[in-house]
Design brief:
Elements: H1 19-40, H2 43-50, H3 54-60, H4 64-76, H5 87-103, H6 107-116, H7 122-149, H8 159-177, H9 184-194
Length: 195
């Protein structure tokens, strides 16, 4: 269960939630986000295509923004944090995982549709930042903090700037070229360490 918040679920008196229904709803939501954008996706359409009722959606999610960000969390859940003790290898693995997420069909478009809703639906971006963006950044921070603990980096190392450079490199390359090369993660991390 990934709605409402990453670590909570509604505890009712009824039977336990069916994880297959959860998965169908989240996968259908990702498909609708990609096809229709956030503004065009509807809870009715998602319920119909997932083969569930609208009340089943409302038992799991507080509304459209909750459902959309829960679906994106579901997508991100397959990316475990990397902390092998080899900072360069960990950063390459993390950046590759993020690259896969962004370059999946409609990945960048989905992010764009969420950003386009920031003025109209501020709670959507607030949930996105809390549930997805902060988690992604925490994975990168964890790798850097591990290197500081091992004495490989100075305790004053600017982790925030490094994380922004790594993550931002994917956005910048996509906007400039329309594609991100396969070896991009390794190239960017190599440049970071060369400096």
């Amino acid at each position: 269960m990934v709605g409402r918040d990453a670590n909570t679920e509604r505890r009712g008196r009824g039977r336990p939630r069916d994880p297959e229904i959860d998965r169908a709803v989240l996968d259908t939501t990702l498909d609708h986000l990609a096809r229709y954008g956030y503004a065009g996706m509807t809870l009715t359409g998602i319920a119909e295509d997932a083969g569930v009722t609208k009340p089943a959606l409302y038992r799991r999610f507080d509304g459209k923004a909750d459902l959309a960000t829960a679906a994106l969390m579901h997508l991100q859940a397959g990316e475990p944090p990397a902390r092998s003790g080899d900072l360069e290898a960990d950063l390459v693995a993390l950046l590759r995982g993020f690259q896969r997420s962004l370059t999946r069909p409609q990945g960048f478009a989905t992010l764009g549709t969420l950003l386009s809703e920031e003025e109209r639906t501020p709670e959507l971006m607030a949930l996105f930042r809390r549930r997805i963006s902060r988690r992604r950044r925490a994975m990168f921070r964890d790798a850097f903090e591990g290197a500081i603990e091992l004495g490989e980096l100075d305790s004053e190392y600017d982790i925030d700037a490094a994380v922004n450079m790594l993550i931002g490199s994917l956005y910048a390359r996509h906007i400039a070229e329309g594609r991100i090369p396969r070896n991009w993660a390794r190239r960017v991390v190599a440049v970071l360490f060369a400096g």
